[in-house]
């Protein structure tokens, strides 16, 4: 939405421009001024996107008014709307965006409005990027605990306690030193959440905490089983390593 101020010391000229600008649904006329002094005061208060400014006015000229407006509100764009084309060079000296001659042509005004929309959109995007670039870049906090469920209760377990995780019939089970829990999401989403931990995918149905592996058992066709503790049991459990994960797991475990 473009917020606009119309400045002209002749009411018929203001009325004509008001009528033409009112055709644009994404443009709001927030003030009309009959002098440069009033335009400066309204700009300081309203900070409009655009000021449509006549050049030949009583007291303060449009060129002088534009210079002051530019100092007050650097992001406000100036469009001169005048019956005199001899001021064009001076107009662009004060960084006017456009120079419209009276009587106004609708097609010419359409071009001006399109240009203004693009310029204000680009400026807003630039500001957003500037703000974003100035913010400190925060790294995600390392995950130390996992939220799980057991018997209808929500529990927090330390990552170091997790032995392995597997999915059965669509339910994700987390096996930890303190027992078995369920996790209310998919195995893939949990794998992504745990990507910076020692808990890695070793099989389509299993994630294993590699720091808990006690033995590596070679198996058929150069595959392996990982032997890890089981909660409340003396014997070690065995987790298969899938072929698609074999190379990565061997590298992580230092197997030649």
Automatic annotation (TrEMBL):
Q: Where is the Response regulatory domain?
A: 3-117
Does the keyword Phosphoprotein belong to this entry? yes
Q: Which UniProt keywords apply?
A: Phosphoprotein
**What are the residue boundaries of the HTH LytTR-type domain, all occurrences included?**
146-255
Output the Gene Ontology terms for molecular function: DNA binding; phosphorelay response regulator activity
Please list the coiled coil stretches.
none
Signal peptide: which range, if any? none
Q: Which residues are modified to 4-aspartylphosphate?
A: 54
**One Pfam family this sequence matches:** Response_reg
Q: What is this protein called?
A: Two component transcriptional regulator, LytTR family
What organism is this sequence from? Answer: Megasphaera paucivorans
Q: Taxonomy-wise, where does this protein's organism fall, top ranks first?
A: Bacteria, Bacillati, Bacillota, Negativicutes, Veillonellales
